[in-house]
């Protein structure tokens, strides 16, 4: 079983920190789970313009391949102006809806404004529905204040991540 954690931004480090923490928790809870971190910051992803996927650069094709070959996903995005990142939107545009059909997706968001914590419910979960994916019932909202020296310092958030990780594993097992 292959879990792909996607850090949905090309700037900053908090999104990747959260993604790594979730992947670490899941790997501890289920050592049989193969985990991989797709940090979009490390790729030269091209803008989706409707061309055949084979006509994009190697980085973009590699990202599409990684997503296509995963069995379930953790998608972590920063919140910019009340919504998810543009690079994540571009990624969704590059992926055929068939790729995520009947697969589990878990969402987490990182933001600097508590007013945005429902963005996952209102914007990301409907996209998963479009893809025909099964969405984890819980999600985690991590505020910028929950970090200290490039790690998550809020124990409540760490506990939420543990519960979220357990939900992802249990949901996948139930659907098998």
From TrEMBL:
Transmembrane segments: none annotated. Residues 1-144 form the NADPH-dependent FMN reductase-like domain. Keywords: Flavoprotein, FMN, Oxidoreductase. Gene3D superfamilies: 3.40.50.360. GO terms for molecular function: oxidoreductase activity. PANTHER family: FMN REDUCTASE (NADPH). This is NADH-dependent FMN reductase.
